[in-house]
Amino acid sequence: MSVSELKKKPAKQWLKSASKDDLVITSKGQPIAVLLRIASASVESTRALVRSVRALQAQASLHQAAAGNGTAGFSMSDIDAEIAASRRARRRK
To answer: Given 18, 24, 80, 82, which is the most exposed site by the fewest CB atoms within 10 A?
Structure first.
């Protein structure tokens, strides 16, 4: 579902897709968000799981970047700086 479709009739579209597990939101054809159906009792555990997945993605991205540009010999302070930069960039989005 595109952002423009969601803006036009959000409740109607969400209820229409109620049988689906999740709903991918796109902007200009690119996925930007996922709406997940969760039980009210599992909100915090779902949020914790999403944070864990984001951390794993950041770690994989760092490994991939290190392998691709010869930075495999980073010191701990270099790694901490990269993580901080990644977090700042994510907050800006």
So the answer is: 18
Residue matched to tokens 């980073």: 74
What 1-5 contacts at long range (C-beta under 8 Å, 24+ apart), as own/partner pairs, is 1/25, 1/26, 2/26, 2/27, 3/27, 3/32
Q: Which two tokens stand for residue 26?
A: 């796109």
Q: Give mean pLDDT, residues 16-41.
A: 81
- In whole angstroms, give the CA distance from residue 32 to residue 17: 18
DSSP one-letter string for 13-41 = HHHHTTTSSEEEEEETTEEEEEEE---GG
pLDDT, tens digit, for every residue of 42-78? 899 999 999 999 999 999 988 887 776 666 677 888 8
26-36 tens-digit pLDDT: 999 999 988 88
Exposure of 2 by Cβ count < 10 A (0-12 exposed, 13-18 middle, 19+ buried)? middle
